[in-house]
Amino acid sequence: MLNDPLFILVALACGVVAVILLIGISNFGREGIENSKRANKFMRWRIIAQAVAVALILLFVFIRRQGGQ
User: Fold this and answer.
1) pTM (two decimals)
2) CA distance 32 to 38
3) Are 20 and 49 in contact (CB under 8 A)?
4) Is 4 in contact with 10 (CB distance < 8 Å)?
5) What is 16-58 written as a DSSP string?
6) What is the pLDDT of residue 68?
7) Which of 15, 20, 37, 39 is 20 to 30 A distant from 2 in Cα terms?
8) Hey, is 10 helix, strand or coil?
9) What is the per-residue pLDDT across 18-65, written as a single tens digit (0 to 9) for each?
């Protein structure tokens, strides 16, 4: 499975979501209006990245069920 490019892409997408989440959470802990705005921006990016990751996971499952590799 590690040789499957789509699996690697799914894993990278999940990693990106995790990194964005950690950065966003760390910004929530800081005081100030700018940090709050930045944290909200990261959380919006996380939602978009998470939607992409879920779509890739569904595509991966669909292709696997069709008998692809």
Assistant:
1) 0.82
2) 10
3) yes
4) no
5) HHHHHHHHHHHHHTS-SHHHHHHHHHHHHHHHHHHHHHHHHHH
6) 57
7) 20
8) helix
9) 999 999 888 887 888 888 888 889 999 999 999 999 999 999 999 989
> What token pair was written down for 27?
């910004």
Q: How far apart are CA 60 and CA 69, in angstroms?
A: 11
Cα 30 to Cα 36: distance, rounded to the nearest angstrom: 8
Helix (H) or strand (E) run with residue 1 in it? none
Per the structure, the count of domains in the chain is 1
Q: How far apart are CA 67 and CA 52, in angstroms?
A: 23
CB 4 within 8 A of CB 69: yes
Q: 1-12 burial, b if ≥16 CB within 10 A, otherwise e? A: eeeeebbeebee
* Cα–Cα separations (whole angstroms), residue 5 to 1, 60, 69: 9, 10, 11
